[in-house]
Design goal:
alpha+beta; single chain; elongated; 3-stranded antiparallel sheet
């Protein structure tokens, strides 16, 4: 589905479901400009289903009206969020970058640090089980016990790393929204 077909789906309906054969960041960016927010991501790999919900907040409705107006006038939905004078700046946040950040924030809001912790915990349990089966080979059992301990010890650090990544994504979104206002000057 191309960009114009996707925009046609954003017709003011309360919910829009769309399948994409990419990472979905551009679609999420477009949806945001047209007054929708990401509610759910289904699937994975080569095919994702994005569930978008109309955002009825006053600022979202204003953004949608402006974007719709610009899109009808010249086909450029991105004019309001990436003004021409900012496009050449190296630190300008593109709509696709903002879309990727929105997806990352959405995933963090849904999962927090639990996915990272679960992965490390499963690895630690597997290492402990391996150590139990390898009890007759002390060096291997000791190595697996050490691995299990290291994975458990990594949990707080990985949670902090995940939180730091989340903060970086929020900062990208703040810069993106600030540059929208900078284009008015």
């Amino acid at each position: 589905m191309n960009e114009h077909e996707f925009i046609g789906r954003l017709d003011g309906s309360e919910r829009v479901s769309v399948q994409v054969a990419n990472d979905g960041r551009l679609q999420v960016a477009i949806a945001h400009e047209f007054g929708y927010r990401l509610d759910e991501i289904r699937g994975g790999g080569a095919l994702l289903t994005l569930i978008l919900v109309r955002d009825d907040a006053p600022d979202a409705r204003r953004r949608a009206a402006l974007t719709t107006s610009l899109h009808r006038a010249n086909g450029a939905w991105w004019e309001s969020c990436l003004p021409p004078r900012l496009r050449q700046l190296p630190d300008a946040v593109t709509p696709a970058q903002a879309g990727a950040a929105r997806i990352a924030v959405h995933r963090f809001d849904r999962n927090g640090t639990s996915a990272v912790r679960a992965f490390l915990l499963i690895g630690a349990v597997a290492a402990l089980l391996g150590a139990g089966y390898a009890h007759d080979t002390p060096p291997l059992a000791l190595a697996l016990l050490t691995l299990a301990g290291a994975l458990v010890a990594l949990m707080p650090a990985m949670a902090r790393w995940t939180l730091a990544a989340h903060r970086r994504q929020l900062a990208v979104l703040e810069r993106f929204e600030r540059q929208r206002g900078d284009g008015d000057r």
